[in-house]
Amino acid sequence: MRAKIIVAGVSIAALLGAAACTTTDPYRSAPQRNNTGTGAIAGAVGGALLGYLTNTSNGEQGRKNALIGAGIGALGGAAVGRYMDNQQRALESQLSGSGVGVARQGDNLVLRMPSDVTFATNQSSIDARFMPVLDDVAQVLQQYDQSTIDVLGYTDSSGGDAINQPLSDRRASSVASELVRRGVIAQRIYVAGMSSQNPVASNATPEGRAMNRRVEILIRPFRG
């Protein structure tokens, strides 16, 4: 699947892949499965040319190659669990009271950013009040650099894909570009808009639709 991603006002092509997902609680550290489909960021962010973050036809392998080339070491064995435990505690400490949920999925972490605290209605520009939260997220991601970062945008089911797909693209890209601006290296980041896929609540109620309008950051240990 291909989608147009906007990063800092520059249209870019993103290579996307998708996998099925189920979830039980969007704001608790409970074991869950989550979509890991991602696209490689390309474009100009803050004046720095990112380009495609792959050097093979396989996007995930290309990201691994880029991380190795950037000097980021791989984790293995018992070190993986300890590393992600520490990263989880750091994120929970920094994000307490922010409205951002931190969930644990095996060795992976998921940050869920509800749209009502991140964006204005039907907008992709990040609310200025949310910028300090992204400062905190970026600080932890820089401290724990032996992990990959997938930024996924989601909508509720209202409006259809013609509206929801580009909106989810832009929202995911806005978050990703702000992380890069704050010093998170681009080689770690993939970005994708997922439209109304993989709801975490029912779209039949206003409360459920509000929960489904979100940006997720999937953080995975880099195993090389």
What does this structure look like?
The protein has 224 residues and is of the alpha+beta class. It has one domain: 60s Ribosomal Protein L30, Chain: A (2-Layer Sandwich). The protein is 33% helix and 22% strand. The protein contains six helices and nine strands. It has helices at 59-69, 78-95, 115-118, 131-143, 161-181, 206-212; strands spanning 2-7, 10-15, 44-45, 48-49, 101-105, 108-114, 147-154, 189-193, 214-221. The strands form three sheets. Strands 5-6-9-7-8 form a five-stranded mixed sheet. Strand 1 (2-7) and strand 2 form a beta hairpin. Helix 2 runs antiparallel to helix 4 (131-143) and helix 4 (131-143) packs across helix 5. It is globular and about 45 Å long. The two termini are 25 Å apart. The relative contact order is 0.21. The model is unreliable at 1-57 (pLDDT under 50).
